[in-house]
Specification:
Elements lengths: L2 H5 L9 H10 L1 E5 L4 E3 L7 E16 L2 E8 L5 E3 L13 E14 H11 L1 H71 L4 H13 L8 H17 L5 H10 L4 H54 L6 E4 L1 H11 L1 H4 L2 E8 L5 E4 H18 L3 E11 L2 E7 L7 H6 L18 H11 L3 E5 L9 E7 L6
Parallel strand pairs: 8-10
Antiparallel strand pairs: 1-6, 2-6, 3-4, 3-5, 3-6, 7-9, 10-11, 11-13, 12-13
Helix pairs in contact: 3-4, 4-8, 5-8, 6-7, 7-8, 8-9, 9-11, 11-13
Length: 464
């Protein structure tokens, strides 16, 4: 081990020549090639690894995928050695060669001995810090995951509840409608209606079509006119029949033709049958719409979670934004209008599920900033080799001191229980470290123009 090489590494600044020599003598120089596994996630962190040259990818297992979470590419970056202070310390990621290089390896007992001998107080501080940090990280990650899951689950339940309730109500009404239809057919049969009369009635039924919605006053006038005609011809329950008949485009002239075809004896059951068929058709359409809405929500969840796709894939960022809007739909109702200014974009290679977490955070922050009242503007555009996404709100904007700290870990201006549990620090890590992109804030609070969160993502893979 070359002492001079160690002296040039910032990590060892302040060590004496004797200490550097002791470090060089106690450690081993380990070379690695591209793809070599230097240390493995989950194994006991028995050794301390310090990068001397080259680069290592830090890879974690996420589900069934190997995900690169960081890269050691500067001499002096280190990993492992946790068993120097924690018997249960493990490697948090796998170190895999990204380029050929070399590492200094020092076993954990020797590391603890050196630190305690050279910097006894530092040894105690490092040990306490390690235990505290691990405890805090575990607690915070669990809470954040639960808060995010709870928020999205509540929103999804709210969104699904409306079409599900509509579908349930429609099924009940459809059952009643089918019963009325069968009873009308039975009364027609008992009235000795001829085949020719029923054929004429069916031809009249085929002429009915759903009319375009009109204002309540016009609809009421049409129903009143029809009720007057029905009452004049002795048809009972005129008001019950008039509403579906008007919805099917039936007017006085149509009723006159029906009366001519059926006569007085079969007129009432004939109109009841036509009314029931129109109602059943309308209810089936409503049921179809409700089921379609539920299917769309399930598809949005599938797209949002990316549960059936690999981590890295070619995506259109607009798809992720739209599925996130669906997931947060319950927060957008009432006073928030959404304006989309989407430009044509190239597909990019990205971790779609992670980007959806970023969109969730930015959209949720924007709605909260407007207190549920305002305009949410979503812009996308291509700028050279970059895809740019902007989330703009019409809230009061961020003060300069908040902008300066917005990307700090654990920094928030929200009360307990509000937000998604995903801070801008994590959003920054996903955009910058995972995707090689940029994220910044444009918030001229003194001008009252709200806030614009801008995310820039490379349209080409890094190194491509």
């Amino acid at each position: 081990m070359d002492v001079e090489e160690l002296r040039g590494i910032e990590l060892f600044t302040g060590l004496t020549d004797e200490q550097l020599s002791e470090l060089a003598a106690g450690g081993d120089e380990v070379p690695f090639e591209i793809g070599d596994v230097v240390f493995a996630e989950g194994e006991h962190a028995d050794d301390w690894w310090v990068l001397l040259a080259g680069s290592l990818d830090l890879v974690r297992k996420v589900g069934r995928e190997d995900v690169v979470v960081a890269r050691m590419d500067v001499p002096g970056r280190w990993a492992g050695g946790f068993r120097a202070w924690d018997d249960n310390g493990i490697y948090l990621a796998t170190g895999r060669g990204a380029t050929p290089g070399r590492c200094l390896r020092l076993d954990a007992p020797r590391l603890r001995e050196m630190v305690n001998h050279w910097f006894p107080l530092a040894g105690h501080l490092i040990g306490g810090l390690h235990h505290t940090a691990r405890s805090i990280e575990s607690t915070v990650r669990q809470r954040d995951a639960l808060v995010t899951l709870g928020t999205l689950a509540a929103g999804l339940a709210h969104e699904i509840n409306n079409p599900a309730a509509a579908a349930s109500r429609t099924v009940d009404e459809l059952g009643e409608c089918c019963t009325a239809l069968l009873e009308a057919l039975t009364r027609l049969a008992r009235g000795d209606i001829t085949a020719a009369q029923f054929s004429a009635l069916d031809e009249l039924r085929r002429e009915t079509v759903a009319v375009d919605p009109v204002d309540a006053l016009t609809e009421s006038d049409r129903e009143s006119e029809l009720v007057t005609w029905l009452d004049g011809h002795g048809v009972p329950n005129a008001w019950d029949l008039a509403s579906p008949l008007v919805a099917g485009g039936v007017d006085r002239a149509w009723c006159e033709r029906a009366h001519e075809a059926l006569g007085d004896g079969a007129l009432t059951p004939g109109l009841e049958w036509v009314s029931a068929t129109i109602s059943s058709k309308t209810l089936l359409s409503e049921l179809k719409d409700a089921v379609r809405r539920i299917s769309e929500l399930v598809a949005a969840v599938r797209s949002y979670s990316q549960m059936d796709r690999s981590s890295a894939q070619r995506i259109d960022v607009r798809d992720g934004i739209e599925s996130t809007l669906t997931m947060l739909g319950h927060k957008l109702k009432g006073g928030v209008s959404v304006v989309r200014e989407y430009a044509d974009l190239p597909q990019i290679e990205a971790y779609a599920g992670e980007l959806n977490q970023v969109w969730t955070n930015l959209l949720d922050n924007a709605v909260d900033a407007m207190d549920g009242q305002g305009t949410l503007t979503l812009r996308t555009r291509a700028e050279g080799d970059w895809v740019v996404v902007e989330v703009a709100d019409t809230g009061p904007g961020m003060p300069a001191e908040v902008v300066a700290r917005a990307f700090e870990p654990f920094f928030t201006t929200k009360d307990v229980g509000r937000g998604t549990g995903l801070g801008l620090d994590i959003a920054r890590r996903i955009v910058v470290e995972r995707h090689g992109g940029l994220i910044d804030i444009d918030s001229p609070a003194h001008e009252g123009k709200g806030t614009v969160m801008r995310v820039s993502l490379p349209s080409r893979p890094r190194g491509g």
